[in-house]
Amino acid sequence: MPPRYDTLFYDGRCPLCAKEIRTLRKLQRGDLIFADIHEQNAHNAQLPTREELLKRLHLMTWNGEWVIGLPANVRAWSHTPFGWLLKPLLWPVVYPVAKRVYESWADRRFEKKYACSVGPS
């Protein structure tokens, strides 16, 4: 069976995002590909728009399906030994709250023109 690689699209200009990607790169098992949104061809019809990619985290599975937002984050971390720690975020009782928190953060980040920071802004 050929290897099954997922591709995570991330904002390489965001310090917080870059920090998480560095951690994921170290911990992942070699089956997760990282794609900086800013290095993608803007005219690639297979990709969502740059704006969509910047609004929510996107992961394309090995079979071409898109996973977006909090589930994309959980799936990306599933490529590491610590993925099980994030799985509860998708449980029916937890997911609505976790999704709301993620989307609130993502919306704020997008409104501030992708301004993420590790410290206070």
Describe what this molecule looks like in 3D.
The chain has 121 residues and is of the alpha+beta class. The chain is 36% helix and 13% strand. It contains 4 helices and 4 strands. Strands 2-1-3-4 form a 4-stranded mixed beta sheet.
Quick synopsis:
This protein has helices at residues 15-27, 50-55, 70-77, 95-111; strands spanning 6-10, 32-36, 58-60, 66-68.
Instruction: Report low-confidence residues grouped into runs of 5 or more.
Output: 117-121
Strand content: 5-15%
The percentage helix is 25-40%
Terminal CA distance reads: 47 Å
Q: How many strand units?
A: 4
Mean of all residue-level pLDDT scores: 89
Count of runs of 4 or more consecutive helical residues: 4
Q: Give the overall shape.
A: globular
Note the main sheet.
Answer: 4 strands, mixed
- Overall structural class, as computed from helix and strand content, comes to alpha+beta
Reading the helices and strands in chain order gives EHEHEEHH
Q: Cα-atom Rg, whole angstroms?
A: 14 Å
**Which strand order spans the largest sheet, edge to edge or round the barrel?**
2-1-3-4
